[in-house]
Description:
Helices cover 36% and strands 7% of the residues. It has helices at residues 2-26, 46-59, and strands at 75-78, 83-86.
Amino acid sequence: MTVFLAIVGGLALVVLAVWFGHRSLGSAGPTSSGGNALGGFDVFDPGRARARDDLDSKEHEGEALPAPNDEDLPVRVDLGSGTVRIRKPSPAPGSEPDPETPEDAGSAE
């Protein structure tokens, strides 16, 4: 008789557990705000996790090269007069001047 009561009691507990579980899953109410099954990890929404990680990485992003000043630009265009001036690159420190371009090429004798 005890075995019969234990089986009936166990079966009643299983039926109640299934019924409450089904009822809680089928309810349209708001879910708990305590995170998901894995403790708040974004396992079930990988797109949101990637977006959050991307925004976090943008926070530490810096400028690769500083923006050039007007004096750094090798080409200057004057649209008013229709002229373009190209700055000659300065020779590297320690290099010798090019022998084909004499120093006084612009002067007439």
